Amino acid sequence: MNYLTQTRSNNPTYTTFTDAILDPNADLGGLYTFANITSFQDFSWLKEANYTQICRKVFSQLGIIESLATTGHSHIESALQSYESFRHPQIAPLIQIARNLYCLELYHGPTFAFKDMALQPFSHLLDSLAKEQKQKYLILSATSGDTGPATLHGFANSTNIRAICIYPSGGTSEVQRLQMTTHTAPNLKVFGIHGNFDTAQSALKSLLNKQSFRERLSRKGYALSAANSVNIGRIAFQIVYYFVIAREMFKQGIKKFDVIVPSGNFGNALAGFFARELGVPITKLCIACNPNDILSEFFNTGVYDLRNKTLVTSFSPAMDILKSSNIERLLFAYFGAEKTKQYMESLDTERIFSLTKEELAQLQTVFEARSFSDTACLEGINQAFKEHYMLDPHTSNAYLFAKLRTNTLPTQEAQVILSTAYFAKFAKATFKALKGGDSKRMDALDDLHTLQEIQQEIRTNINPNFALESEILSLFGKKEIHTSIYQVADLEEEILHFCV
Ligand SMILES: *Cc1c(COP(=O)(O)O)cnc(C)c1O
């Protein structure tokens, strides 16, 4: 299979992987996706394979390398070089935290969030393609906190690409904000805006769809692309780490496992589904949600209903999402283009769609889902801490789900939670969980002091030598470059002004 298909079209459109990542908006209103994935029959190669070798093997099975034309190999090689900036030699280490419970740590990339797993190689790939095409690109992204730093880091100093991040002012953690505003590379720009993440996301979408904006950019020599998980390129890189889990499990003689994914836009879990299609022996994919419980409602009732939902802000902001873009690709994989089109159009116009009983039953053979309150989230961090493992608030939701399932699980079956961020990015929530501090006192402490108190706490309780990563602490001493906060209405002119 060398071509991608579109989720709302019955006629295969034969878009190559290159075209889909350079211009992720499918012309029939849907998304590009993989179709007819062929499973590996043999996994003997996996035992000795390291992270980048797994990636080459998976991309070749998906037809991606051929689809990148004759120079495919060199593009992939330059993408894979980005893993050299990761702090852990295994890239994504699997840690055992209890009997039959493991954690795949996806936060050892340069910005301490799982977004690095895909955005680092993805940005290098895009840069390499842009150079080959001798085309300049403007990459836009909206962020609730983790996508922004990873995108900026990935594209910093890339010659043919300018990257812009739009974030809601006041809507990210202090560490996340500094990871963006202190960037010095001349091809990067960060716009804080007045509004929440939805405001930022809609501003991004309307610019991406605005013809006159594209034309003005094009007169300046720029093509427009986006780096959110609507881009199939990001999903592709995320499939790889599910094979890492399999490799480690096979080494221990474990043949089947369940994976629990802290979910928001459903990109991570969808990559797990594709890995399962490729033969990774995942029994269940479990979707952990925060108080924004639309996905858990969907997988438990078959109804995706936006009508009575309002977004609530939680301790796990990267999961504060109601319109989960990648559900569309799951619908396509199970029910085909016609049904997907019908359901997604119904979501747009009626703000609801409902699966049939049979369709729901099909999904439930693979998926389970649950949502957890903010109070539970803090308890999860605290409970894991007592078991000598530090969780960030996103991962805590997955941990709680695993703990709930433990009793009903056959003794041979292992559970793996995916850890999506380093806890120190979320100092306030972690502090509150460990010290039970009331929020009034926390407001008075700035994040640096909060982090230092957490460091003390961990030293005394877990590890006498524990030190926070110096890259995080040093952010507080850096000069902030991108300090202005903008009105959404002014973004277009500001962006054009930046694209010289
Ligand atoms: C983005 C993100 C998630 C959600 O991942 P999706 O692929 O959008 O479901 C969870 N946790 C963290 C820390 C994230 O940055």
Automatic annotation (TrEMBL):
Keywords: Amino-acid biosynthesis, Pyridoxal phosphate, Threonine biosynthesis. It comes from Helicobacter aurati. GO terms for molecular function: pyridoxal phosphate binding; threonine synthase activity. PANTHER family: THREONINE SYNTHASE-LIKE 1. Its EC number is 4.2.3.1. This is Threonine synthase. Belongs to the threonine synthase family. GO terms for biological process: threonine biosynthetic process. The modification N6-(pyridoxal phosphate)lysine is found at K115. Its cofactor is pyridoxal 5'-phosphate. PROSITE patterns: DEHYDRATASE_SER_THR. It catalyses: O-phospho-L-homoserine + H2O = L-threonine + phosphate. Coiled coil: none annotated. It comes from the Bacteria. NCBIfam families: thrC. Pathway: Amino-acid biosynthesis; L-threonine biosynthesis; L-threonine from L-aspartate: step 5/5.
